[in-house]
Write a structure and sequence with these properties.
Elements (H helix, E strand, L loop, with lengths): L1 E3 L2 E3 L1 H19 L4 H17 L12 H25 L7 H22 L6 E6 L3 H11 L7 E7 L20 H7 L4 E4 L11 H9 L4 E3 H9 L9 H6 L7 H37 L4 E7 L5 E7 L24 H8 L8 H5 L4 E3 L6 H10 L12 E3 L1 H5 L6 H17 L2 H17 L5
Parallel strand pairs: 3-4, 3-5, 5-6, 9-10
Antiparallel strand pairs: 1-2, 7-8
Helix pairs in contact: 1-2, 1-4, 2-3, 3-4, 5-8, 10-11
Subcellular location: Membrane
GO molecular function, one term: phosphotransferase activity, for other substituted phosphate groups
Family: Belongs to the bacterial sugar transferase family.
């Protein structure tokens, strides 16, 4: 992994993006000047990103699934280029360029993904610890979430932990860690030990590994790097204090505010016809109000009224008690089902953005009733209120709709990552992923 503006990005994904930019630019330059060719390459990359072709879970695709994703991506790109050509006629390109670019991208992806899955690029891990967090690190390393494969070669048991890993994967505890790393050709050591105050924590041996050229990483950093999560169960308070990030500078605030206003204005103008049709449909369905105002908790725990299209019956909470939204919630109207699925119900929140109560990207604002409960049940929950809430966010594009304390914990771990590492670069990536979530209705309820 490499870090770009505090955000972890796969080296292979970054190389793939640069490779495809070069390929598309070369394909267009053969029949067009440099400026139209550059516009073509950028539009195609954005189109592929919008349809999820640079997400981590695409690294295990075969030729069929890759082709199925390239086709709609280039259809979308073709439409965007036609729209752009209507505004700037000088950048119109022939269909041969699109076909040539698609073929070259398909070939490049097959080569890159085949190489990425090769055992030559496999990263071998030794995990210090044998408890529940060690098991979760093993599961993350063995998942298909990343572009490069991991292999856990074994666990070094530490006294005081309740064993949760396969006994067959335990390594000899009588050998120094550096000797184990060299014997098993380990590329990295991941430390999952929670209690580091007793004499069982091998501080001196870990230092020898670091000095001997074997990188040593703690579990919190491993999860942050590979899953874009700050795991609450493996988090030490010092990690948040000394781990960097949490940019609250004036420059970041100005850039963030400018991005909020431009993104809200652009999407508001594009979505105006859809919003008008939605308002008419809601009114025609049951004659009730089009909009719904609800009190939410914002930055610094300040309360504000969020504005949304009404998607539930008018008597959704007739007993006066807040309720989590449930799967196939009977309170949702017919129109509400579709506007929730397509996230259209969130669009009026752009007015909250213009008022400065929300950002376009940030943690989802929650109701005070639930915030009070969650702050008492989940450690560090209130950290998410250190920045403005958002219409969309990392948790919204990476995790399904939250409807329980367990879901709130999972989403908090993405929110903590965003609060710690937020930047304009990450905002743009989340905005691109949001388009995919809207197009495919992911995470709606």
């Amino acid at each position: 992994m490499i870090r770009i503006f505090h955000h972890y990005v796969s080296r292979i994904a970054f190389m793939l993006l640069l490779l495809e930019l070069s390929i598309l630019l070369a394909a267009a330059v053969t029949s067009a000047p440099l400026w139209p060719a550059l516009a073509f390459a950028l539009v195609m990359v954005v189109s592929m990103g919008t349809l999820g072709m640079y997400q981590h879970d695409q690294s295990r695709e075969d030729i069929k699934s890759t082709l199925l994703r390239i086709t709609p991506s280039f259809v979308l790109g073709f439409g965007l280029m036609q729209l752009l050509a209507g505004l700037l006629p000088g950048i119109r390109l022939g269909s041969v360029v699109f076909l040539l670019g698609a073929g070259a991208v398909l070939l490049a992806r097959l080569l890159v993904f085949t190489s990425a899955q090769s055992s030559i690029l496999e990263q071998r891990l030794i995990i210090v610890g044998d408890g529940a967090i060690a098991r979760e690190c093993m599961e993350l390393a063995g998942s298909s979430i990343g572009f490069h494969p991991f292999r856990v070669v074994g666990f070094v048991p530490v006294s005081g932990e309740l064993r949760a890993v396969p006994p067959a994967m335990l390594l000899p505890s009588d050998l120094p860690l550096l000797s184990l790393a060299r014997r098993y050709a380990a590329d990295e050591i991941v430390v999952t030990v929670g209690d580091r105050r007793n004499g069982a924590f091998p501080v001196r041996q870990l230092l020898e590994c670091a000095l001997g050229g074997v990188p040593v990483t703690d579990a919190a950093t491993f999860f942050e790097r590979e899953a874009c999560q700050i795991r609450v169960d493996s988090l030490q308070p010092s990690y948040l204090i000394f781990g960097g990030g949490f940019d609250q500078s004036l420059m970041r605030a100005l850039v963030k505010r400018l991005f909020d206003l431009l993104a809200s204005l652009a999407i508001g103008l594009l979505a105006a016809p859809v919003m008008l049709l939605t308002a008419i449909a809601i009114r025609m369905e049951d004659g009730g109000p089009v909009f719904y105002r609800q009190e939410r908790v914002g930055r610094g725990n300040r309360l504000f009224k969020v504005l949304k299209f009404r998607s539930m019956r008018q008597d959704a909470e007739s007993d006066g008690r807040p309720q989590w939204a449930a799967q196939d919630d009977p309170r949702v109207t017919a129109v509400g089902h579709w506007i929730r699925k397509l996230r259209i119900d969130e669009l009026p929140q752009m007015l909250n953005v213009f008022k400065g109560e929300m950002s376009f990207v940030g943690p989802r604002p929650e109701r005070e009733y639930f915030v009070e409960q969650l702050c008492g049940q989940i450690a560090y929950y209130n950290v998410r209120h250190g920045i403005k809430p958002g219409i969309t966010g990392l948790a919204q594009v990476r995790y399904r709709y939250g409807a329980s304390v367990s879901d709130a914990l999972q989403k908090l771990q993405y929110d903590l990552y965003y609060v710690k590492n937020n930047s304009l670069f990450l905002d743009l990536l989340i905005l691109v992923d949001t388009v995919q979530v809207v197009l495919f209705g992911k995470g709606s309820r």
